[in-house]
UniProtKB/TrEMBL annotation:
Lineage of origin: Eukaryota, Viridiplantae, Streptophyta, Embryophyta, Tracheophyta
InterPro entries the record matches: At3g26010-like (IPR055290), Beta-prop_At3g26010-like (IPR056592), F-box-like_dom_sf (IPR036047), F-box_dom (IPR001810)
UniProt protein name: F-box domain-containing protein
Domain F-box: 5-55
PROSITE patterns on file: FBOX
Annotated organism of origin: Eragrostis curvula (weeping love grass)
Alphabetized SUPFAM superfamilies for the sequence: F-box domain (SSF81383)
Length: 386
């Protein structure tokens, strides 16, 4: 007797793809186990632009190295971002957000203009579609230290972040922090925000009643840029620069794992939907998770990121050069891959989620008239420079 086949197996491939295109990434991943034919359809590059995408991996140590989440293979894009014009030099990867990447670059000096220092500028690109746009200059040049007559009021523009949520809008925002040095410590004084919708920068002074010392860890979520500060707090600013707030993590004094004096435990907090309170979700022993400590200074772990379609936290184990994932639901640790090198700096890992939308090119064309001439000259000569 012939084996009974599922009615789904008789559906044409294009109909199946149409159905799969309506699923979120997490459900789509589960569908790869339905049958071999479905697995082929989901993994077929020809269908990839129609299907929901999820975290593919992380770029780290600049735009040169990539670590895949599912496997240590290279991404479907060039990790060197070679599609950027060859005239772009000193390319520094600053941030990524939902498929877009933020760089700070300089230009090759033009012989006809004579020798001069090339200003730094920001570039936002989509490595999946190889689109890019050079941004107009903010009022304070990027990546600079502006010295003043008073030693305590030097201003730095070395930190910037990217905000983008394709589920809400095709437009992106770039946040440039203006930090002042006070007693050898940098405090946030103001922020400049670029909107791809208007093509302009807006300068906003901090509207908080306390000194803000950013630790360098920044994340864009739900229309706000969130950055960790001292005193177990998170400062947030919206895309207009008009709404500022601070949310504080209140330790549970009855739970020793939530106390700063217990460095052998991991405490995980989540921001409530109203954005007003951090709630303790889980505490777990680092010894149980990561094994015996082989470092004299304790566990040397960095949070690389969070998986958007599951309760997974990605860690970098510096002493062992490993990328780890922690499943909060099952409290299990999995070794993703080993790494060749990991720099000790702010935000060394930049998550990559493939983005097949070509909205970035339309944004670049719309805002060309807002670009400085020295940027516009090179950005319109992409094909000549390659």
């Amino acid at each position: 007797m012939a084996e009974e086949r599922s009615p789904v197996s008789f559906l044409p491939g294009d109909i199946v793809v149409e159905i799969l295109a309506r699923l979120p990434a997490r459900s789509l991943c589960a569908c790869t186990c339905v049958s071999r034919s479905w697995h082929r359809l989901i993994t077929d590059p020809a269908n990839r632009h129609r299907l929901a995408q999820t975290l593919s991996g992380f770029f780290f140590a600049g735009p040169r190295f990539f670590a895949g989440v599912c496997s240590p293979t290279h991404p479907l894009v060039d990790p060197s971002f070679s599609f950027l014009p060859s005239s772009y030099k000193e390319i520094k990867l600053l941030d990524s957000c939902n498929g877009l990447f933020l760089f700070r670059c300089s230009l090759t000096p033009r012989p006809d203009l004579g020798p001069r220092l090339s200003p730094l500028f920001y570039v936002v690109c989509n490595p999946t579609t190889e689109e890019w746009v050079a941004l107009p200059q903010p009022s304070y040049a990027p990546g600079m230290v502006f010295y003043s007559d008073e030693a305590t009021s030097d201003t730095e523009t070395t930190s910037a972040a990217l905000g983008f949520d394709p589920a809400v809008s095709s437009h992106f925002h770039v946040f440039q922090l203006l930090e002042q040095e006070v007693m050898c410590t940098l405090f946030l004084d103001a922020i400049e925000i670029y909107s791809s919708e208007t093509g302009k920068w807006v300068l906003s002074k901090t509207q908080l009643d306390k000194w803000i010392h950013s630790t360098g860890s920044m994340t864009y979520f739900n229309g706000f840029l969130h950055f960790t500060i001292d005193y177990d707090s998170v400062a947030s600013v919206d895309t207009t620069g008009q709404t500022w707030k601070i949310t504080t993590i209140v330790a549970d004094r009855e739970d020793p794992a939530s106390s700063d004096s217990f460095d052998d435990a991991l405490a995980i907090y989540a921001l409530e939907d109203d954005g007003k309170e951090w709630v303790l979700k889980q505490t777990v022993s680092k010894l149980d998770l990561f094994g015996p400590d082989n470092s004299q200074d304790g566990w040397d772990l960095d949070v690389a990121g969070f998986h958007p379609d599951g309760d997974l936290i990605i860690f970098c184990d510096h002493p062992r050069l490993r990328l780890l994932s922690y499943d909060m639901n099952h409290m299990l640790v999995h070794v993703i891959c080993t790494l060749e090198e990991v720099p000790y700096n702010h935000r060394p890992f930049n998550p990559y989620v493939p983005l097949y939308s070509r909205a970035l090119l339309a944004t670049a064309q719309k805002n060309d008239n807002a670009h400085e001439q020295w940027i516009f000259y090179y950005s319109t000569k992409k094909h000549e420079d390659r």
